[in-house]
Amino acid sequence: MKKIKQRNGRLPLLLITAILTLCAGFLIVGCGTDPVLKVKDVNKGAYAVDFNNCPGDYCYGNSATDPILDISDKEITFEAMVKKNTGTAVTGAVFSRLNTSSGAVLYVKDDEPTFAMRVGWIDAANPDATSTASYIVGSNFTLVQDAWTHIAGVIANTAHTHTAILDCTTTVMAETPHLDIYVNGDFKNCNTTWGYDVGGVTDPATGPQYADSPGSNKVYLGKIEDSTDANCVDPTTDSECNTLDSTIYQNTNLNAVVDELRLWTTARTAAQISECKDKELGISGGNCYRGDSNLAVYYRLNEGTANLTTDFSGNGFGGTFYYTDSAGAEHSWDASWVAGNGVTGAD
Hints:
Blueprint: H1 2-25, E1 47-50, E2 58-63, E3 76-83, E4 92-98, E5 103-109, E6 112-122, E7 130-138, E8 148-156, H2 170-174, E9 178-183, E10 186-191, E11 197-198, E12 201-202, E13 220-221, E14 243-244, E15 248-249, E16 257-264, H3 270-276, E17 295-299, E18 308-309, E19 319-324, E20 330-332, E21 337-339
Antiparallel strand pairs: 1-16, 1-21, 2-13, 2-19, 3-8, 3-16, 4-5, 4-13, 5-6, 6-7, 8-9, 9-10, 11-12, 14-15, 16-17, 18-19, 19-20
């Protein structure tokens, strides 16, 4: 009887030990504060994706069409880590939600980190066509080869004071909303979101405006969305295709390495951007918290294998990687996984 009592006395301890061991690797009901992440990530900052090492004409990733990611009429922030890994100037979309008439995108043009939003309207003189205006803010910063650079583009609806520089006049700073861009946590420039002429047609907006949501609901990594117009044959020449800033085409291959992609449905402050730029977002609270309700999409890009990437925001925007060959056929791409930027893991 004594042995039986000792054995029964150990059972609760063994059971507790087993549960704690399970909770260390998995988050289940009652085991943790983050009900979204099922398997604990152990590759903190270990991997990134090299779009420069593309086996086809261009490579990219995108989320599924569901659930819907609405970015219209609200503040947003796009963030990414980018590394130039060759001597060739980097050009291409980094992280986007942009079609031919609406959305926003974080991109690089000739080594300059840049952010843009786009709005569309029906021209009364030509009701069968949609006119568009792209509002762009450059950073006046040049990527350095083999160095990681953090980029953040913001549509901010709060008037705030920056150093007047480039397009960022005191008038633009007071506009709500307006565009801001940060590089490595430092403010670089701001710009307006209304009043441009496009092909001789003036944007009819009577004041600052937000971006609208593209119709497909997809988030793209490494490209902008394809045009649905049947007259789009050659993206580099046809006006029906999706083109941005006379340089970024829907078939442009981003020749750089990317890591830590984040999309927020709020305007992150300069302090928040600076604090979290070198950290993975964790399960604890604070400014670098991936449970923040304003975090819409979060790709850590730590998988290191195969063609899928997890959305750590918990909102279901997991991504799949593809490449397109010279004939325009799409193929699954086991992304070129390379060493990441080494950000510190928060969990």
